[in-house]
Design a protein that fits this description.
mainly alpha; 4 helices
């Protein structure tokens, strides 16, 4: 059974660096679809890890259960981070291109802080 283990420190570090670079690139060129790549990648990863966890057999249960739970938790955290980064870059792009945003997606967040 092949599992893309993102709970290993090196893999997690590389994925975090790639996510930060995509967010920074999206901010610099003011395109919202660039950080959306990271969001969709993590959504795909969480769905793959969830399917693998649901289809886990008895023979692989002891070795892969904890690893898949850790991977799903990391996927959810990265989805949270990349979603807010997407909203942030969307706000920057709408201000730069002077487009009216459908809603001010992060206003509710910043008003609470």
């Amino acid at each position: 059974m092949f599992v893309f283990n993102i709970s290993e420190p090196i893999t997690l570090l590389l994925l975090t660096i790639a996510t930060v670079l995509l967010i920074f690139l999206g901010k610099e060129v003011k395109k919202t679809y660039i950080p959306a790549f990271a969001l969709f990648a993590y959504l795909i990863l969480v769905s793959i890890h969830s399917i693998q966890l649901a289809r886990l057999t008895e023979q692989f249960y002891e070795t892969y259960y904890k690893m898949l739970i850790n991977c799903i938790a990391i996927d959810c955290i990265m989805i949270f981070i990349s979603f807010f980064a997407y909203l942030w870059v969307d706000d920057i792009a709408s201000k730069f291109y002077k487009k009216k945003s459908i809603d001010n997606s992060l206003d509710w967040f910043w008003k609470k802080i």
